[in-house]
Every structure is written in C-alpha cells, then in structure tokens.
Amino acid sequence: MAGGPLCYRRLKKEENHIPYAILRLEKRKGQQTAAINKHHERTKETYGSNPDIDHDRTKLNYHLIRPSRLYRQEVEERIKAAGCKVRKDSVKFIDVLIGATPEFINALSEEDIREYFSRALKFMEAEVGKENIFSAVVHRDERTQHMHICFTP
Length: 153
What we know:
Blueprint: E1 21-29, H1 33-41, E2 62-65, H2 71-82, E3 91-100, H3 102-105, H4 110-128, E4 133-139, E5 146-151
Antiparallel strand pairs: 1-3, 2-4, 3-5, 4-5
C-alpha cells in the first residue's frame, strides 16, 4: 500500500485530526432480526430512520461475507445446531459496526478502504470465530463508509 499502513501518513499532523477506528457491538434479540436484515441488505425502498442513505450509491455496497439465507434463518439454524436453550429475552446475535472517523476514511484510496475493512473482518474472525460470522457488508451509500458484521455468540 502506498503511503504506509492504511495511509496514516496522509493525515497531516497540523490538521489536528487523530484518526480513530470505530467498533460498536450491539446485542440483538429475535424481534430485531428482520429489521436489521432489511437495513444491512438494503431490501427496503425507503429508510425513514436513516436519511443519510443515498440510493444512487447503494450499488457500491459490497459483501465480504454474504449470508446464504435471511438473518432470522441463519440465527435460528446456528442456535439449533449449538443445542442452545432460548428464552424470549435471549440475545440471538451480535450486530457490529466497524468504521473510522470521516477525516481518516475519506482520505483513503479505494484500495486502502477495501484493505481497512478486510483487516477489520480478519480481526473479528480471530476474536469471535470465523465460523460464527454470517454476514459482513460494507455500506458505501451513507455519509461515512462503514461495515456491518453479524455473528452468533
């Protein structure tokens, strides 16, 4: 990669910008699965709760791990295979958002952005187990690019 590891050097010190990686994990229960699936996979016509989505750019979104079924089916199959007992308030999967400060991510080349999210996925695979991750999708159609990863705990 030109410019050093993920182009940290492209941010000039005099700009007083310190790049930050962003990692947010949210526990998700069964009733939220369909809504999360629709948001991540962009299956709705409009998103009233998120006006930052630019539908003309949705075609630029891409998967690093494409789910083979609906999220609900992925989750239920994994829970069943693990032999877990489920209460109605049980956490069924974890929804992860990975991003970076806009100053950092917007200064990267297309190649470096892909590398950033690829490395982030490899980190999550090492932390939670590659076999537990059922979706990893990069959203390029919002103000700041980011990736959603879903996995069963």
